[in-house]
Design goal:
Layout lengths: L4 H6 L16 E5 L12 H6 L4 E8 L3 E2 L3 H10 L3 E7 L7 H14 L7 E7 L8 H19 L4 E4 L1 H6 L13 E4 L23 E8 L8 E6 L3 H7 L10 E10 L2 E9 L8 E6 L2 E7 L2 E2 L1 H6 L7 E9 L3 E9 L9 E9 L5 E10 L2 E9 L7 E9 L4 E9 L1 E2 L1 H7 L4 E9 L6 E7 L8 E7 L1
Parallel strand pairs: 1-2, 2-4, 4-5, 5-6, 6-7, 7-8
Antiparallel strand pairs: 1-9, 2-3, 8-9, 10-11, 11-15, 12-13, 12-16, 14-15, 16-17, 18-19, 19-23, 20-21, 20-24, 22-23, 24-25
Helix pairs in contact: 4-5
Length: about 450
């Protein structure tokens, strides 16, 4: 792209803050006729093979110029599997109808840009003509609105921080509708401390052109290099009409359970803001809990090159009944977009109440014999088990407390919490006839006392 001296000068004046490696962001190129020295074609398969994900191709300038390589590059990028966008180099002038003329000329050459890999059109705004700030802002709005009307999708705008401030006057309304392709060049393109200033009206950039002298296999000349704000799913969402573009993204990293509780953790980012967003949790398809993704996650900050800040993790716990459940987490869009699923997990939630098994209940020659085991999942210690024994012939209850402390390695192997959880009860009770026994385990931590076995004998 051509750049004004003002934009180039801005490269030396941009904000520097602590940062992390930038290698995780998706890269791509933007090309014009300059990338075809001597008519040399671009080998888009090699560009794709070098690890790049997208190409932005110059289509038109003013109302008379069409890039002679546009058609071949447009087709070649898509054939190689690259996402693609087309840009128009603006020549602002009065009357404002020139914006309509240029918008229509651009669309007549670039088409609707609604193919499967198409990320849309761009207004490349680098010249002001002889327009005032207010006039240039109006001219820009006119072009953007006309391309939106003709294609059915809002284009992006390419500009730099200082050009937007000094030439356009920092209008803040445009950024709410049209995404930003930001031009900003560090002295060291691989810098891990450089942060570009974002023009008024945007909270962040979608694409960032960070160098103009890149070398890419398949392209015979120096080429502009770009980074994309987000992940591949977000890039795909920009394509085919832009449905879901700019939606939050993230991950449900871990799910754990404890007594009547499911705990979830992960991260979520909305490319439209650097602020934390909400995460909603559903259990078995019904509302569970909300949380704010504001927990420090330096690993996420590193992966996204620090452009969204470190505080986008979430940790949330939901009370549930014991048993099998499906828990799902959704990232909530900061504006009015889609709320994508971060992930679902199937979990089995156990109670912290004691549990066990009455394995044998016999009355032989007047002797009562009960055998089983019981434990409390909140402790490895042996617990008290109370047997309540009812004689149908006598109509009376006997209450027998005991400690479930006998060695049961089979229980330890199956349930953990050690093996000292067995019990045996023997007692001579002649003439009592048929009986009924229920045993209750005494709770040791969270939870409550619970039946651990009942039987007729």
């Amino acid at each position: 792209m051509r750049r004004s001296a003002m934009v180039l000068f801005a490269a030396f004046l941009l904000l520097v803050v602590p940062a992390v490696p930038v290698g995780a962001l998706l890269t791509g190129v933007d090309v014009a006729s300059y990338q075809h020295p001597g008519g040399m074609p671009i080998d888009w398969v090699k560009v794709k093979g070098a690890g790049h994900s997208y190409a932005l191709v110059k289509a038109t300038e003013g109302t008379t110029y069409t890039n002679p390589y546009f058609v071949d590059d447009w087709r070649g990028a898509a054939a190689a599997g690259l996402y693609r966008g087309a840009y128009h180099y603006a020549q602002p002038a009065l009357p404002y109808s020139t914006a309509l003329d240029q918008a229509r000329y651009f669309v007549s050459k670039a088409g609707s840009m609604t193919g499967r890999l198409d990320i849309g059109g761009v207004l490349d705004l680098e010249e002001k003509g002889r327009l005032t700030k207010s006039q240039l802002a109006t001219w820009t709005r006119t072009w953007l609105a006309e391309v939106t009307r003709l294609t059915g999708r809002p284009p992006m705008i390419y500009t730099g921080y200082y050009f937007w401030k000094d030439a356009v006057g920092n209008p803040t309304d445009i950024g709410s509708t049209y995404r930003l392709w930001l031009a900003s060049y560090p002295d060291d393109p691989n810098s891990t401390t450089y942060r570009p200033l974002v023009p008024a009206g945007w909270s962040n950039w979608t694409f960032w052109q960070y160098r103009s002298d890149g070398r890419v296999p398949g392209i015979g000349w120096q080429v502009d290099m770009n980074r994309f704000c987000c992940d591949l799913a977000a890039l795909a969402a920009l394509a085919a009409g832009g449905a879901g573009a700019g939606a939050p993204f993230g991950s449900l990293d871990a799910v754990s359970t404890s007594s009547g509780t499911v705990s979830l953790s992960g991260w979520a980012v909305d490319p439209d803001t650097v602020d934390p967003i909400d995460v909603h949790v559903y259990v078995d398809g019904t509302w569970g809990q909300a949380a704010t993704a504001d927990v420090p996650r330096p690993d996420v900050d590193a992966a996204l090159s620090g452009f969204f800040g470190p505080d986008h993790g979430f940790e949330v716990s939901v009370a549930v009944d014991s048993g099998l459940h499906e828990v799902c987490a959704y990232a909530i869009d900061a504006t009015s977009g889609t709320n994508p699923l971060l992930g679902c997990r199937a979990v089995v939630v156990s109670s912290e109440n004691p549990f066990g098994n009455l394995e044998v209940a016999l009355s032989v020659y007047g002797y009562n014999y009960l055998k089983g085991w019981a434990l409390d999942p909140s402790t490895d210690a042996s617990i008290t088990v109370t047997a309540y024994i009812y004689s149908f012939s006598l109509g009376t209850w006997a209450t027998v407390p005991m400690t479930a402390s006998l060695d049961r390695p089979d229980v330890g192997a199956a349930h953990g919490h050690g093996s000292a959880h067995g019990y045996v009860y023997q007692d001579l009770r002649r003439g009592v006839g048929a009986q009924f026994a229920c045993l209750v385990g005494t709770n040791q931590g969270d939870g409550a006392n619970a039946f651990v076995g009942c039987s007729m004998f």
